[in-house]
Amino acid sequence: MMFTFRIAARHSIAVAVVKSKTHKVTAINARFLFGVTVQGPRTFSIDVKYGKDRNVILMGCPGAGKTTLGRMIAKSLSMPVVDIDDDHLEPSWKTTVGNKLSEVGPERFLQLEGEALLQFNRHKTVISLTGSNPMHQEAMEHISKSGIVVFLDVPLQDILNRLERMKVDRIVGQRPGVSMADILKYRQQFYEKSYDIRVICAENDSLESIADKIMKALERFDDRQGYVSSRNSKNAESDQMNLNQVIRKGLAGDGGLYVPASGIPHLQTTQWNRLISCSYQERALRILEQWINPTDLSHSNLKSMIDSAYDSFNCNKVVPMVHLERNQYLLELFHGPTASFKDAALQLMPQFFREAVKCESTRYLILVATSGDTGSAVLDGFSRYSGDSNQSVMVLFPEDGVSEIQKVQMRATPGDNAHVVGVRGDFDFCQTAIKKIFNDVTLISHLRENYNVKLTAANSINWGRLLPQVVYHASAYLDLVNQNVISVGDPIDICIPTGNFGNIQGAVYAKAMGIPIRRFICASNNNNILTTFLNTGIYDLRNRSLHQTISPAIDILKSSNLERFLHLVTGGDSRTVCQYYKSLETQKYFEVSPEILKKIQTDVIAGTCNEQECCETIATVFKETGYLMDTHTAVAKVVADKLNTGDIPMVIAATAHYAKFAPHVLQCLGQSVTTSDPASQFKQLAALKPRPLLHPELSSVVSKPPLHHSVIDGNMQDVIKEIVKFIQRSG
Question: How many beta carbons lie within 10 A of that of residue 475, not counting itself?
Answer without folding.
Answer: 27
